[in-house]
Amino acid sequence: MMLPYFVQSPLLRGVPGVYHAFVGVDPVRGRSLRDQLRQVFAVPPSRLGTLRQVHSAVALEMEETDGDAPGRRWREGDALWTASPGTGVGVRTADCVPVLLAHPRLSVCAAIHAGWRGMAAGVIEETVRCIAARAGFAAVEELAAAAGPCARGCCYEVGEEVAAALRGRPGGDRHLVKGGSAGKWNADLQSLAVEALLRAGIAPGRVEAAGPCTVCSSRFHSYRREKSLTGRQLSFIYRWDFSGVFTSLPGQDSP
């Protein structure tokens, strides 16, 4: 079987019972994301939740209707988290940052779509806050998080309006570099996402960057490079239903 290109985070690979991938270009033309999940990664599409992404700071807990199933009800938001065994969450990107999170002991994982608008609005911090509200603030430090392939400072040139929105973000003074012409800046979205995860309370050493710049790499879709809305890649994280691997969160039945 021809496989789509994908990368994984070594940090997330170390979380027991959790499977993830930042999926890139698929050499099989016309193969749907549903078929990728089922045929390549052995993940049931009906058990992996996604949202209609709107570049917001909205983070939602997964519901049964968020999976790929007949008659699904699309909810709007840019981060989705689950605390149920046998479920997963995913986001679609093509230059924005896909961020995946998981806890090594508690039954929780999350996927975040962080474009510059969502990042400026605080979507990463909001997702961590939602998890902390459910799992407890002490759990945040133990989260493992990876910021995946996206547009980086080598290629992502923005105007003054975008730079102003990102300048006040954690690391904005270091990951925004003056561009080659007046009013232009180069922004490293992946590094800004890593900084936001650390500022949200995840411990140093529990956060990493995974994968290349999407504009540079032909192995990933890039809106900047392709000038098309058709190419999108899925990044997902899935928690297998292994009884006894994780501790249940408050308000959740034991696996």
CATH fold field value: CNF1/YfiH-like putative cysteine hydrolases
Low-confidence runs of at least 5 consecutive residues: none
How many beta strands in the DSSP annotation?
A: 14
Strands ordered across the widest β-sheet: 4-5-8-7-9-13
N-to-C SSE series? EHEHEEEEEEHHEEHEEHEHE
In terms of DSSP E residues, the strand content is 15-25%
Largest sheet: 6 strands, mixed
Q: Shape from CA axes? A: globular
CATH architecture: 4-Layer Sandwich
Helix-strand makeup class:
alpha+beta
Instruction: Give the rounded overall mean pLDDT.
Output: 91
Cα-atom Rg, whole angstroms? Answer: 17 Å
Question: With helices defined by DSSP (H or I, 4 residues minimum), what is the helix count?
Answer: 7
Count structural domains.
1
Q: What level of helicity do the residues show?
A: 10-25%
> For the terminal residues, how far apart are their CA atoms?
34 Å
CATH class: Alpha Beta
Question: What's the name of the CATH homologous superfamily?
Answer: CNF1/YfiH-like putative cysteine hydrolases
Topology:
Blueprint: E1 6-7, H1 10-13, E2 18-23, H2 33-40, E3 48-49, E4 59-61, E5 79-82, E6 87-93, E7 97-102, E8 109-114, H3 116-121, H4 123-135, E9 144-147, E10 157-159, H5 160-167, E11 176-178, E12 184-187, H6 189-199, E13 207-209, H7 223-226, E14 233-239
Parallel strand pairs: 3-6, 4-5, 9-13
Antiparallel strand pairs: 1-2, 2-14, 5-8, 6-14, 7-8, 7-9, 10-12, 11-12
